[in-house]
Predict the 3D structure of the following.
Amino acid sequence: MKKQAILATLVAVTLAGCGNKEAATSTEAATESERIEQVRTTTLHPREIQREISLSSNLQGYQTVNIAPSLTGKIEHIYVEVGDRKKKGDMLVRMDQNQYTTTKLTFANLTIEKQRMDALLASGSVSQQSYDQVKLSYDQTKESLDFLETNTYVKAPFSGVISAKNYEDGELYGGQPIVVLTQVDKLKTLVAIPESYVPQIKAGMRLSLRSSVYPDKVFPATIEVVYPTIDAGSHTFQAKVVVNNAAGLLRPGMYVTTTIGLGTEQVITAPYSTVLKLIGSNDRYVFINENGYAKRVSVEMGQRFGDDIEIIAPEIVEGVELVTQGEARLVDGVKLSVATE
């Protein structure tokens, strides 16, 4: 009997505790439903903005060529040092001249022989076959001489600066280029652009380029080539941007920011401080006033304009009241007392 009495007492205490918890929960719910938050709001309106994207990249010489003759052998003389500026056609390297000199003498003899054969052929004193053999030797030797001249006396194919030198006079050439010539009066950079901008990016578009080295300068640039394929991994495509560097301020390898203007557009913006971040994630949200109650709206952030940020969501349209003060205290569904800005 004692055990039955104790058991009955425990059951009664447990039921009483549950009843107290339910009552407390009901009280909290009632309190929450009666809660009123003081906030300020502003009505959202579209604004016209200059749509642009900024992309970072590194400058390169517009053209870079490795001066690497097709002849192996001794380097007789290198006419340049790193940093030298050379014009198109300037001599850069002279290789061993023996083979070129020998071929030049052979060609001189063949020139005389061909002239003699021309005269004999005109008078009918020599067969066409004999003439053709001399002519063939002449043509082959001339081609070899042109090849040897180009690769013995190596000249600059364009104006530029010597950016590397790998040999000294008298060394045997093989493998590495002798020098590297880089065009610097015109530079290029390859920018990776998100695929969503494919319809808007065209060759010939003008844009601006900035470098932290010259924070107060803007360098005009142009899109020269838009690459036709999309990178499947990054979902970007490349554009070749060209900038005139006649003043020589920019250098290959510099880190630059390229800004591409995409025209004007109507968007909704909000004070940056009103966009809240969900703890532990990168999700962003704002609160709006919906019939006197707070409604939490997840948004995507677009372009920033000073203290304002573009916000994008189906619910963010003209005429919506955005909570601009007191938003940090809000929860979804709480009643609002609004002082409109």
User: Anything to note?
Assistant: The CA atoms of residues 186 and 244 lie 5 Å apart. The longest helix spans residues 2-34. The longest strand covers residues 255-271.
